[in-house]
Amino acid sequence: MQLFADLLDALSYQPARNGKLRLMEDYLRHAPDPDRGYALAALCGELDLPSLKPAALRDMTIAQIDPELFHWSYDYVGDLAETIALIWPTGNTTTHAPPRLSEVIERLRLAGRAEAMTLMSDWLDGLDATGRWALLKLAAGALRVGVSARLAKTALSALGTVSLEEIEETWPQHQPPYTELIQWVAGGEKPAARNTLGFRPLMLSHPIEESDLANFAPHDFCAEWKWDGIRVQVAAAAGQVRLYSRAGEDISGAFPDLIEQVDFEAVLDGELLVARHRNGAVEVASFNDLQQRLNRKKPTPALLASSPAHVRLYDALIIGNDDLRALPLRERRQHLEAWYGEKPRPRFDLSPLIQFADWSELARLRADARAAGIEGLMLKRWESPYIAGRVKGHWFKWKRDALTIDAVLMYAQRGHGKRSSFYSDFTFGCWRPFVDENGNPGRELVPVGKAYSGFTDEELRKLDRWVRNNTVERFGPVRVLSPGLVAEFEFDSVHESTRHKSGIALRFPRFHRIRWDKPANEADEVETLRKLMT
Amino acid sequence: MPLHPQHWLRPMPGGLYCEPGGFFIDPSRPVDRAIVTHGHGDHARAGHGRVAATTETLAIMAARYGEGFARETQALAYGERISLGDVTLMLEPAGHILGSAQVVLEHDGCRAVISGDYKRRYDPTCPPFTPVKCDVFVTEATFGLPVFRHPPDKNEIAKVLHARELFPDRSVLIGVYALGKCQRVIALLRRAGYDRPIYLHGALQALTQLYESRGVALGPTASVAGMVPAQLKSEIVLCPPSAIGEVWSRRMGDPVPAVASGWMRIRARARQARAELPLIISDHCDWDELLQTVRDVDAPEVWVTHGREEALIHAIQQTGRKARALSLIGYEDEE
Q1: Which of A182, A187, A292, A513 is the most exposed, fewest CB within 10 Å of its CB?
Q2: CA distance A344 to A263
Q3: Residue A69 and residue B311: Cβ atoms within 8 Å?
């Protein structure tokens, strides 16, 4: 447990992706089996431990500590798990040895609430402050150390020569603590394949620009809308169903409404959306609605009713017992259409093919595509087999042009890692009408978004210098800037938001151009952004 | 009937004043006669008439403020008794930093001990805290909450050495207080067997040399001036905490930012300090050590000064002793 606790502790302070990878790789090399496999499962968010109520943990602590001291401490620290970890009495360490991670997980998994509390108390006695903190995080369910399942698997792949794709493909065949899998990656024998429910790594696309199209013949390609959902794989075999995210994470639990409709055996590729049926038509909802569903591991009946899940299919890897991956897309599409035609299912439909004669016609269609749920176009070579990974020359994404706005830099914060001495994180704002206390109308700036990228290293140096010379106030790490610098920001779309003062939120904002020449009062108004809302 | 210290020791706007002795302890504004417990800026200020302190504290003040920091100085050895007015005064080691002292006062049959800042654990750069039995003990409360329990120093130093192995292409940049923490971290690294040169920000050099000249061996140190990132790869560099993330730190390229302070126990504080490697190394007592010290000096009454007083007062009262807050202004939470 101590090694795992030290890993979580270090990860929680490590901002950089490479730093996190290095820490996890080091842990996986040195921790014994089966602990390291359980650690991997915990990092991937795959452990389903009985969740312990914070109030119960607090009461258990207060039973051993003067409640007044606990109160002052909690008030100062602000985080309950951290307070308990720090304040837990250390007098009993001699009677309880620190537990192993495997022991914690194996016993907690089977324990009822009451027994779990007794176990926790004994373990808290045996661990140091970092160990106690890690144990409480584990028991709380969410580690929140900024590691995705894919990043954890990437760290695993660094142990040997097995690629991330291979790990992802075999991952679902294994269970925590993944001992066989880890030993294989670390140089052992490849475990035998067990079932066909496994995730098959997806075929990915490359971005393309209009100018690249001149080299391609239009009739070699099929065109589809690029849907603004998340890519998923539906795998169904032998009465079981899995829904995988693009990185191979099993997200079936969050989408019971889809899973219950799967009465087939196939492995299909498509886009997960929230879509509502209205007058016989399927209306795709905004990405925000899908986000609500993705945030919920166990959706409520109300959420299921208001935001029903839907998969828009565009490819078939396996249908029945036939593996179609070696066939060209043209034939796979025929199989998919024939299969769907036999029995259409309301929660599934096919991504329609767009008819076009030449690239200029397609460009026109793309330019008009700002309806909800469309991010641009996909171009796929009719002859493409289904190949895992980002293979060149087969699939292309042609995103719609980003939206842009001129906004004023309002606040700056320093970045992390190599950027830790540079002001690289900016909040920018636009104007809106405002009436001052004397009733005089004027305009005020309100923040509309944050951006950290899109500038060159040279521009970053200039921005940093500008920030240092134009700070009017400081709140902790945040510098308030005098409203004097305008930049053109790019973003994918605008949404309604109750979380921001401006009432709107931008998707993927980034710097496009810094307008050293443009006065702040010529920046755009919030109203302009509202008109761009989809 | 001995005269209780509450009648002859009282907080004034300028600091704690001893009336029958005619002196202040660690005054925050210029006074005629001052006793200074240690050299940190919030305790040792320039501009007093007469200053009595340990030889080391006087040397530190001279290094920081110049030779003319007071009209007159009086160097006291630990344990040396002097009389000031009707008061007998003696300094005893406080274990906080080089030269740090507790002030032991005796007047009319009563003894009061003013701890200044102090710690109880081993520090190779200064003599250890000596508990002195007394009627009133005046303690600091910087870490006066039970969440503050400092881990063993060697665990924290091991983190530094592990980070070097894990990130061989980066330097480890440790933010330290220039006086005391800097030299202690160096000494702890040496004890852990680290014998490479340790690189110092310019603001740390003078005091480090002063420590060495007072017989505290710290091994090879060097200035970072003029160095480029490639030369500092996998080296350990010390700087004031405020220099991390400042333009100065760019000469390190992409260092592992570390901060050595008792505040690093609290995650929000560590994140605020932008530490990738928070090191819980403190020159103050943790909670258990504060309470242990109260038991060791066995004072029936404890006055608690700067820090988180309420919880400590509450805990001391639970042990059957009197305890109250002594409101002194002008001391900082810095460490």
Answers
A1: A187
A2: 11
A3: yes
